[in-house]
Amino acid sequence: MQDYTHSCKVCRKKYRTCNTCNELKSFETWRNIACSMPCYQLWMTLTEFNCGRITAAHAKEYIATLDLDGKEFGEDIVIAMKKIEEAFSAESASSTKKISSNNTLEEIEENKTANATKPYRTKKSKRKNR
Description:
By secondary structure, this protein is mainly α. The chain is built from five helices and two strands.
C-alpha cells in the first residue's frame, strides 16, 4: 500500500497522489497542492487576492460558495482569510464614505458613471474586404 505522499497546503490533511502527479516537472498539478478541489480553489483564491488580481469583495464572495465544511485550516490560511475580512471591511467603509446622506440621487448616479471603467475596444482592421 502506498504511503501518504503529500500534506494539503490548506487543511493539512495527508493524502496520496499517483506517480504521474509527482513526476510532472513542467507545471505543478492541483493534486500536489491540495487534497480536494474545494481546498485547491480556496488556495487559488487566496493567491489571487494576495497578488492583487481580485478584490477582497470578490474573494469573500467566492470563498462563501466553496464547500469547506468540517475543514480545519492551517495558521497561514486563517491569517490570509482574516486579511481578506479586514480588507473587505476597509473597502466597505470607504464605499459608504463616498456616498453621504447629503448627496442627491443625481449626484450619486453621476459619481457612478464618472468612476465606471470604459470597456476594452480593439482597433478596427484596416484591411479592405476582398
